Amino acid sequence: MTLFPYFQPIINVITGNIAGYEALARQECNDTITSAGELFSSKKISSEELIKLDRNIRWMALQAFSKIEDENCYLTLNISAAWLEHIEDLNSLPTLDMLERLNIDKNRIIIEITEHDAELEKLIKVVKKYREAGLKVAIDDFGAGNSQLERIVAINPDIIKIDMTLFKQAAKQEGVSREIVQLLTRFGKRHGCKIICEGVETEQEFFFALNIEAQFIQGFLFSEAQADFQVSDDYLSQINKLRASLLGNNIDKERNKIHQVNKIKGFCFELKEMLINSVFSLAYIPIHNYKTLGLLRFYLCDNGGKQISPDYNFKDSEWVTDNSKIDYNWSSRPYFYKILALDSFGENNEVILSERYRDFGNSLLCRTLSLYIDNKTILMVDINAEWE
Q1: At what angle do helices 203-211 and 236-276 cross, to 10 degrees?
Q2: What is the Cα–Cα distance from 203 to 152, expressed in whole angstroms?
Q3: pTM of the predicted protein model
Q4: What are phi and psi of 377, to 5 degrees?
Q5: Where are the domains of the chain?
Q6: pLDDT for position 324
Q7: Fold: same for 3-234 and 274-384
C-alpha cells in the first residue's frame, strides 16, 4: 500500500497570499489520485499499522516542506487525538523528532488535533510539549460530532478550523448554524484564536468567510490539494476581484441599512414630540408611513429600567395595546445602560441602536432603539432586523 502527501493551500484573507498548506494523505488507484481519508477510519487495519502509515506520510510531507525557503509559510499536520494514546514517552514525540532531523523551524508547524476520542489529560500534556517546542495547535472540524468545548477550554488552541458541513450550512442561510459560526468567530477575536474556514467552494461561501472576519480560508474555489507547492501570490488577483465585489455589495447594504434606520429614528423623534407636547395618541400615528419600517412595538421606561407603559404592538397594519409587560425591568440590557451613560455626559437627544438579538416572543432577529423623552422617561422602539 503506497500513500503519499498532497498539499492544499491555506490563504490569508488579509494579504491574499498563500499563508501555508495542509498536508493530506493521498493514494493512487487505477491511475487516479484519491483521498486516503477513509483508509484511516477502517476497522480492517490495526491502529499500529495506521499509525505507521500516518507517520510515514508525515515524514514525506515534512521532507518536501523543508525545501520551501519562505520563512513565513507554515505547514499543518493532522494528528488523531485517539492515536496520542499510543505515545509512551512524552519526551520523545515522533513529530518533534522528525522536525529535529530535518532542521525545520518549529514555529512554522501547526498540529491539527482531529477526532474526538482521547484521554483529555494526556492530550493536554502532549499539547503542552508541542507548545514548549514552539509549535502551534489547532482544533480541527469544530462543530462536528460530539461537543469540543471541553477540549477548547482545556488546551486553548491557537487556531480553530470550522467543520466544513457547519460552515456550508451557515454560509447558505440564516439560522442556528450561522449564529454558532458567528459566535465562534467572535470568541476567536476576543481570545486571540484564529479561525480557518475550509471547504470554500463558491463565491457566496468566500463572502461569508470574509463577513465573519475569518483570518484564513481553504477550498476548491482556489485550489484542491496538489502534489507540489505553489507561488505564494497565485490567487491574489482572484481574491482582489472577489474582495472588490464584496466591498461594493456591503457598501450598498450599509447604505440601505442607514437609510432604513434613519427613517425609524425619524419615527422616534415624532413620537418624542407628541409625548413632550402631551398630544400622544395612537390614532395620530401615520401608519401608512411606517408599514415598511419593520416596526414591532414601542413602549416607555423610567430611567431605572422599569416599563411604565403598555407595549404598543404594530400588528396587521394597526397598533394593538398590550399591558402584560408593565413593571418589567430592562435595565440589564446593554443598550439601556448605554443611553444612561450618554445622559451623564449631557447627550440625551441621541437615538441608541442595540445589537441584533433574537426576540423570545416571535423568534425574529430584532434591534431596539432608545431615546430620552425627558430626564425621567425613555422611549424604546423594537424593530424587525431580519432584513439586514
Answers
A1: 60
A2: 30
A3: 0.84
A4: -130, 135
A5: 3-234, 274-384
A6: 95
A7: no
User: In the block, which residue shows the cell 470568541?
Assistant: 187
pLDDT tens sequence across 183-211:
888 888 888 899 999 999 999 999 999 99
Say which residues have a Cβ less than 8 Å from residue 52's Cβ, sequence separation at least 6: none
* N residues, the chain: 388
Q: Which residue has the cell 451623564?
A: 344
Domain 3-234 has CATH 2.60.120.560: no
Q: Which of 159, 149, 168 is nearest to 188 (CA)?
A: 159
23, 37 in Cβ contact below 8 A?
Answer: no
237 vs 223: CA distance, rounded Å:
14
Question: Amino acid identity of 298?
Answer: F
Q: For the domain 274-384, what is the CATH code?
A: 3.30.450.20
How far apart CA 176 and CA 330 sit, in angstroms, is 25
For residue range 294-316, list pLDDT tens digits in order: 888 999 999 999 999 999 988 87
Query: Which residues in 230-268 are b (16+ Cβ under 10 Å) and which e?
Result: eebeebeeebeebbeebeeeeeeeeeeeeebbeebbebb
For residue 231, CA distances in Å to 21, 72, 73 come to: 12, 13, 11
More confident residue, 6 or 51: 6
What are the pLDDT digits (tens) for 14-49?
A: 999 999 999 999 998 877 899 988 887 777 888 888
Q: Is the pLDDT of residue 236 over 60?
A: yes
Encoded amino acid at 303, one letter: N
